[in-house]
Amino acid sequence: MRLPVPLLTAALMLSVAAAQRPGPPPPVALPGQVQPLAPGTRAAPTLPTLKLTPAIPEVRKVEVLDNGFIRAAHALVLLPPQDVSPQRALTLAVQSVQATYRADPPLAEVDVSVYRADTYRGFGGPLPLLTLSVPRARLGTFQSEITADTYDRLWTPETMERPEPPGSPVREPERLLVFVGTQAELLKQRLEQSLAQVRGGVRGGLLFKGNPAQRQVALTFDDVPHPLYFPLVLDLLKREHAHATFFIIGRNAEAYPYFIRDLVQEGHELGNHTYHHVRLPHLTDTQIRAELQSTNDLLTRLTGQPVRFFRPPGGEYSQRVLNIARSLGMTTVFWTDDPGDFQNPGVETVEARFTRHLRPGGIILLHDNAPDGLKALPDLLQVARKKGYRIVSAGALVR
C-alpha cells in the first residue's frame, strides 16, 4: 500500500509495507550501468563530438562540452578482446589525448576511459581497464611523468575487495522520497520530518532541512564523478567561490580517483551515494552495509577524510537503511529543492523551479551529469545570492 503524505512544504512519498517488505526487483545484466531518464521527460541532448585525424579505430567517440568558460573532452576507447594488454590500453589513451588536443587546441582538459569492447555496457557498468586525465597545464609533461611512474592522473584497476553487485540499478533520478517500512515506522518518519520542517537541523541522524532562521542553503550534487561533466562543474564552483557536498558513487570514484582528490583540494565535502547506485531497502543488511562501508573505505583511502553524509539512491530508504548509515557514523541527507535537472526540461525551467522552492535552510539537489543543470548553475548561484542567501555545503548548513 502506498500513502502520499504531504508534510508542510516538503514533497514526500512514504511507501508502507505493513506486514511484509517488497520483493526484490527483476535482475538486470549489470547494476548501475545506466541512469535513465524519468518517464515523460525530454531526451538528453546529443553532445558535440570531435573527429580525430588520423582516425584511431579503437576510439568510439570523443564528446565535448563547455560550461560557458572552458571546454573539456572525454574520449571513449574500446579495446577488442584479443588485445586488452595494459600497455596497449596506455598507448591508445596517450594517443587519444594527443589527437584530441590537436583536433581542438583550446580545450582545457581531455579525459580518456578505456574499456573492453566485449564487456562495455555504458558508463557505470564494469570498471574500465584504464582512465587518464590531462588538464592543459599538464599536457607538456604527462608522457614523461607516465614513463617515470609519477603521473597522478592515471588509473588502472587494483587488486582489492569490492562489494558484489546486489541488484538492479536505480531506474529514476532522485525526485520524491520514498520510505519503505511498517506502519509504526512510517508514523515515526512523519513526525521526524514534520519537526525537521519546523525546527531544521539533524534529528535522529537525518537532515531534511537546515535552520529556517538562517538565510543559507546547501548545494548538493548526486552521481559523482562523471569524466566529462565533473571538471566543468568544479571549474564553475571555483569561479563562483561556492562550496558543495558531492554524493559519490563508489564505482565512479574508484575509476576516477583523481577527481575525488580534486574535490577535496578545492574545499568541497564528500558524501556517500553507495558503491553501485542501487535501491537499498530491497537488500539484506549485509548488502546494505557493504554498499556503504566499501564506499566509505574507498573515499577515506583516497582523501584521508572521514565520510559524514549519506544520500540513498532514488530517494528510497527504510528504517534498516537509516540504522546502518547511522551505525557507520553518517547523517542521511535529503533535500527541499529539486529543480529536476536530470529531466532535461530546459535551462529556464530548471531556474524557475529552483527560484520557486528557494527557502532558508534549504537543500538543493543537482546532478553531476545533467546538461541543463550544468548550464543553469551560474544563474542559480547568482539568483540565490541576489536574494540574500549564502551558498554552503551540508556540513556548514548544520554547524
TrEMBL record:
Residues 1-18 form the signal peptide. Keywords: Hydrolase, Metal-binding, Signal. GO terms for cellular component: membrane. The keyword Metal-binding applies. GO terms for molecular function: hydrolase activity, acting on carbon-nitrogen (but not peptide) bonds; metal ion binding. Pfam families: Polysacc_deac_1 (PF01522). This is Polysaccharide deacetylase.
